[in-house]
Design goal:
With about 250 residues, this protein is an alpha/beta fold. It has seven helices and 14 strands. The relative contact order is 0.14.
Length: about 250
């Protein structure tokens, strides 16, 4: 009987210790910028954790796939995402956000002030309104500070001549010290060239992410030449986790 009690006490102690370690590993980790590029069967989604443990989700894929991926990178006790960024109106980028907004506590929604329209976007806006989440509309030149990380809006802007192949979707640059992440998603080559000639690149270690069935030939040579990325890849490829210590990028 005594041995059974001792066994139970030891088991409880081990479980508590493991839980403390689990929480400590998330809350008091080394200060890095973690970027998780989810490879979904349908859609695009990027999950970011800043050095001060703020969370940013860019897009939510087309369905609930993104939730499965989020649960892999967030601890089970976390039910909050600080910033959800709506890149545009395309269902493949925002369909999954409807369930995410319903399931998680969202601090703020960031979306372009100029957007195309879609039925999915209309449904998403209804859910956001129902949950009383603050919306911040952005355009080129805006910058949002999240601790040591800055979110710079590269696109869209009002003076651009839009057409069916060049829609007003978000182009984003995230900076952490000497490292940058350029999320160009579905932006056309025309828009990428416009971005290339409009911005000065201040970081030296950079990543470029693109989406859809695009190949590297659909990424503007002008933009790549200006950014000189260490990694260039499509969100359609296998899930990629990258970490920046502020000086350079490494695969997780």
């Amino acid at each position: 009987m005594k041995n059974t009690k001792l066994y139970v006490i030891c088991l409880i102690f081990i479980c508590i210790s493991a839980l403390i370690f689990y929480v400590y590993k998330w809350e008091y980790r080394e200060k890095t910028l973690d970027v998780n590029f989810f490879s979904l069967n349908r859609g695009r989604s990027v999950f970011i954790r800043t050095p001060n443990n703020k969370t940013i989700l860019v897009g939510g894929g087309q369905n609930s796939e993104a939730i499965r991926e989020i649960t892999k990178v967030m601890p089970f006790y976390k039910r909050k995402i600080d910033y959800v960024i709506i890149p545009g109106a395309v269902p493949a980028q925002i369909g999954g956000l409807i369930e995410i907004v319903e399931r998680y506590e969202i601090e703020e929604i960031i979306m372009p002030s100029l957007m195309a329209t879609s039925t999915v976007l209309s449904e998403l806006k209804k859910v956001i309104k129902k949950n009383k989440i603050h919306i911040k509309e952005v355009e080129r030149g805006d910058e949002i500070k999240v601790g040591e990380v800055s979110i710079k809006i590269l696109f869209p802007y009002e003076g651009f001549k839009y057409n069916k192949t060049s829609l007003p979707e978000l182009g984003i640059e995230l900076n952490y010290k000497n490292t940058g992440v350029f999320l160009i998603g579905n932006l056309s080559k025309t828009i990428q060239k416009d971005i290339a000639k409009s911005f000065e690149i201040k970081t030296e270690e950079n990543i470029v992410e693109y989406y859809n069935s695009a190949s590297k030939t659909k990424v503007s040579d002008e933009l790549l030449e200006k950014i000189k990325p260490k990694f260039t890849f499509s969100t359609n490829e296998k899930t990629m986790y990258l970490i920046s210590d502020g000086d350079g990028w490494a695969k997780k």
